[in-house]
Design a protein that fits this description.
By secondary structure, the protein is α/β, with parallel strands linked by helices. It is 43% helix and 14% strand. It binds magnesium ion (MG). Magnesium ion binds next to loops.
Length: 169
């Protein structure tokens, strides 16, 4: 099983994942982490920016699903109901089971799938192990709490390598 903590591409935020970028990458299924990727953890409902972004991807034929480790299934459920998208909750990232379940549900293979998330040890590692593209964003709203600050400092060198390598142009 491949092991890498280097994301394929690092972006500032999710809105930079455009239909044009995904088309260039050949991605038809975008798996998204929820907390700090699509919304800060303290925000209970999707905002207008998120609705617009999703609509643009939908119109471009991209399937978007949430893959979340959040312990509150109600939060993930509420978000996804509001957005009209499917999800895999308690996904157990970086284990590959949740990624595979999502791809199976969507009927789209790993070669056409990407994961978008803010954490190396869950989102990126799981994506790498699943053989899909790993797109990484800075934590939306900034890291919250001491542990997240430390975590995001530790993630920096890996993101720097990804930016230098620029594996995707
Ligand atoms: Mg997250």
């Amino acid at each position: 099983m491949p092991f890498s903590l280097i994301p394929h591409q690092v972006l500032e935020r999710y809105t930079q994942v455009t239909p044009a970028l995904l088309e260039r990458l050949g991605v038809r299924l975008l798996l998204c982490d929820l907390d700090y990727t699509l919304a800060p953890k303290s925000v209970p409902q999707p905002d207008g920016t998120l609705h617009t972004w999703l609509e643009e991807l939908r119109q471009a034929g991209v399937t978007v699903m949430i893959l979340s480790n959040n312990r509150s299934s109600r939060r993930v459920e509420t978000f996804c109901r509001e957005l009209g998208i499917r999800y895999v909750g308690h996904a157990g990232k970086p284990r590959v089971g949740g990624y595979r379940a999502a791809m199976e549900q969507a009927g789209i293979p790993a070669e056409q799938t990407a994961m978008l998330g803010d954490k190396l040890l869950t989102d990126v590692l799981g994506a790498r192990r699943s053989g899909i593209l790993a797109l990484m964003v800075e934590p939306l709203g900034g890291p919250v709490g001491a542990w997240n600050h430390v975590l995001h400092l530790l993630q920096r060198p890996f993101k720097a390598i990804a930016k230098r390598r620029c594996t995707i142009s």
